[in-house]
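User: Okay, second chain of the day. Same drill as before: sequence in, structure tokens out.
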Amino acid sequence: MLHANCGILAPMSDLLPDDSPAAALSGMRIAQAAGLVMIGFILSRVLGLARDIIIAGVFGAGKTVDIFFAASRPPETIFFVVAGGALGSAFIPQFVGLIAKNKSADAWKMASVVANLIALILIAVSALGAVFAEPLTRVLALGFDAPATLLTADLMRVMLISPAIFGLSGLAMGVLNAHQRFLLPALAPAMYNLGIIGGAIFLSPFMGIYGLAWGTVIGAALHLAVQLPGLIRLKPQYHFSLDWKAPGVWDVARLMGPRVLGLSIVQINFWVELTLASGMVEGSISALRRAFYVMLLPQGVIAQSMAIAIFPTFSAQAAQGDQAALRKTLGQALNAVAFLSLPATVGLIILRLPIVRLMFERNAFTPQDSEAVAWALLFYGLGLVAHGLLEVVTRAYYALHDTRTPVAVGGGAMILNIVFSLILMQIIGVQGSLTMGPFGGLALANTLATGLEVGALLILIRPRLAAPNITSPLTPLPLGEGYQGETIPSGGQAAAIGRMILASAGMGLALWAALPLTGGSGLSLAVATLSAILGGSVIYWGIAWALGSEEARLFARFALDRLRRARSA
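Assistant: Same drill. Structure tokens below.
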């Protein structure tokens, strides 16, 4: 959690009473909310790591796991497009807006109608996917032979049970977040991972790879179940209705349409990546999947927790028409993400092989498999900052009820990603190799496209938030401590970014020198890698402090303040 006076999330007056679900949280309460979400993300990522370790240990990184990951792509696409983002980003601003206008009954009526419609739509889409699972697999995984195609289709049919459950769970998450209740929604992904872990441990010995598929369904049910107690405490007013003319329903659909398209574009990138990787050497799909997951570990803790916690505040500020507060809050969030993501990027790239070995290398997962994941992680890791900033800036667009701009920019990024993929897979890596395969080009294409996407969104949001006197596209928003509505000269912010880069470079040199110490195995590998991560963090902090970084000083004051509070408690 961040301290209220740290400058990253500086204090601001509440726009509404703190107990109102439409209230814009103060800086301290945003920090507290972000801390809760961060705890949930850490737990989810730890369990996700355990999930992948168990899967790797049981099934290795060969054809069987490639088939499972391919089969999970369509259900995951439905989840991420509808329940994982589109629903919440369209629902929360409308729900908060109705509450702010003292129309609680209309808000619950809207939530009921949306839940009923989403459930019916997802059941229909999943049923359609189950019917056409085999031809869909032939299109999705061109490189699979006939037995692999049939197995992929069978697994897909099992996992297509989960999207309808996720749809209801996603709506519950939106309701709880709109009421500034973050803990149970933050725990939901961890419950999902627990279901898959249970499938791997208890079902796979009897059902083989089908145990993982049924574990996915169980995980979806747990994802919903963990949120039900919080939802019940809100005493929801459920209506068994499909009245799409109810207040707010059409607005949710209107906002959700472009968002669905935008997230579909993101998923198309993954489908293209899967299709191209299916024709490469066996294990390429697994290497890409695991490398992307490793990159998402710090991205989730740093950026997603911040974005989820701050989105209701964005929505409340937009509903009140307070652009100055929204501009300030967005700038502070971007600053926090940049300060933490830059060193994480450097550390992830330099320590990629020992990190991957520590995470996965045991039982059926070989040193060659570790090198393959580390190869893909090299190129994914370069995009960590861009992925982090993207999480935050898109939430500002959604709070402004603008889902079209992110869709348009995302569409351009998708096209670029496909073009980059087709080019870079011919240039990067060695054909027929696993440890340095051409799938590295696919990872680099994702990084380049995401970087261009977030850059465009940052530039385009400047006039929307009316931030004058900022001339550099690299500093689109006012940042820093003491901001009271004025803007900070771009030169000052450029200097702050420069300090972050210099501190990251110094940390990188130290990690590079320590890299030979991570060549052991077992306990030696764990101690050396974790010590390098901890030592690198301290070095980054120390250099940033010595260079006069206000962020480093304020984070340190926050940490000391929390320690004093813990001792006095």
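Residues 492-569 form one domain.

User: Thanks, on to the next one.
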